[in-house]
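Quick note —
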Amino acid sequence: MKSKRFFRAAGIILVTLILIVSIGPFLIPVPPLENTVSAEQLADADSKFVEVNGVNVHYKTWGQGEPTFILLHGFGASIFSWREVTEPLSKYGTVIAYDRPAFGLTERPLEWEGESPYSPQAQVDIVIGLMDALNVEKAILVGNSAGGTVSMQVALQHPDRVEALILVDAAVYAGGGASSWSRPLLKTPQINHVGTLLARQLQAQGTEFLKTAWHDPSKITPEIFAGYEKPLQVDNWDKALWQLTVASQESGLVERLSEITVPALVITGDDDRIVPTEQSLRLADELPNAELKVIAQSGHLPHEEKPVEFMQAVTEFLATLQ
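Predicted structure written out below.
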C-alpha cells in the first residue's frame, strides 16, 4: 500500500510538472511594445537603404576611392558605434557602415521563406550582397566583437572578396550562440511565447552592459547612451532580437583559423571584460598573417573609447598593405 501511494504521489507530481512546463509559459502575458515607430522615421539625413537578399539594409557612406572599408558592429550596437572613426577612416578610401540584421535601422522581417535572415550564414550573405549592390569588388572588413566573427566567416567563404581584416575585440573562443542541447528548447512554442520578454531584457540591462564594455564608464555621455537606445524605438526590435537568438549557433572558427590567410590586424583593449583581452592575444597568435595592437586603458570598444589610438594602429597597418 505504501509503495502504491508513493508511486501515485510521484505520478501526480510528474503530471503537475509537465503541465507547468508545457502550459505555464502561455499563461505569462506578453504586452505589445509601446511608442515604437518605423525605421525610416528614425533615419538620419545621411542614412541610406538598399534591399539585400530581401532585407532593407540601413547603411551610411563616407569618403571615396579605394580601398573600401566595410564596418560590422557588435551585438546590441549599430552604425552609431563607429561614429568616432568613420571620418578619419574616410581619408584613406571609401567607408561603408551598415546595421546588421536585428540591429539599428535595418529591416526586421518576421516572416520569410527558407533560411532565417538572422542566421550566421545569412549574416555572411548580407555582407557579400551589400558589396554586390554597391559595386564593391573587394573590401577591408572591420569587425567589432560579433561583427568580427562575421568578418572572419566572410574571409573563409569568400577570400577573393576580402583584402584584409581589422578585428576589434572579435568574439571567437567563447559565445556565438546557444549551446547545442538548448537550441531545440528555444524553438518550442512555450519558450518562443516568452522569448520577446527575454529579448526586452536588453533594454533593461543595456546601460550596465555598455558600462562594462568601457574601461572608464564615466566617459559615457548621455548622448552616447541615447545613441545606443535609439534602435530600441523601432517596431518589432524585440521579436527580431529573439529570432537572432533562436538562429544563433557556434561559429566553428577556432578549428579553421589557419585557413584565414589574408592580412589581419587584431586590436584589443587591455581591459576588455566582454571578450577578455587574452582571447585577442590568442587570436593574433593563431591567425597565420596577423598583427596585434593592445590599446591601453581601453575596454571592449577601443574605436569609441580611444579613437585616436585606434586610428594610429589602423594607419600603421594600412601602410603594410601597400
